Predict the structure of HNH nuclease.
Amino acid sequence: MRETLILNAGFEPLSTVSLRRAVVLVMQDKAVVEHAHPGLRVRAASIDLPVPQVIRLCRYVRVPFRQRAPWSRRGVLVRDRHRCAYCGRRATTVDHVVPRSQGGGDTWLNTVAACAADNHRKADRTPSQAGMALSVKPFEPTPADALLLALGLKDGEGLPEWLAVPGPSVSAPALPATA
Ligand SMILES: [Zn+2]
């Protein structure tokens, strides 16, 4: 898969994303193409774009890239887009895949968003003990995931609060020197 480099609005490199993600960001007017593959175009139903090698965000985004995202219930719901991992309906609770009573921890890989009904039904059991199948595989958000989650948020321009952690970050704008 071809990767595209994302620059922040101040031109500092942030991350790489798939070409498909890059095109979506440009189509949503969240980024502009800075460099494209010469002669290559992305063509789909209503799309005709140069194939971006580098895109730049239209708005400045603060992302604490040097940090691993700390686990939180809210973060799990955001990561899973409030979709229940068992039935796909709207999730308002966080389920421990391996229950805490069986040694499961508060970690990204052991927790999923779940609707209240499925969480109640599963109770203190693993999915196999409860005869329930996970439809998604829990993952730890990478910096690229974090950036995309931040960009995908409709309300507010900031990061989800689970990412807004104190500490070193790359948030200082590295603006090009003016002559
Ligand atoms: Zn459910």
The pocket of zinc ion is lined by residues 84, 86-87, 89, 114-115, 117-118 (CB under 6 Å).
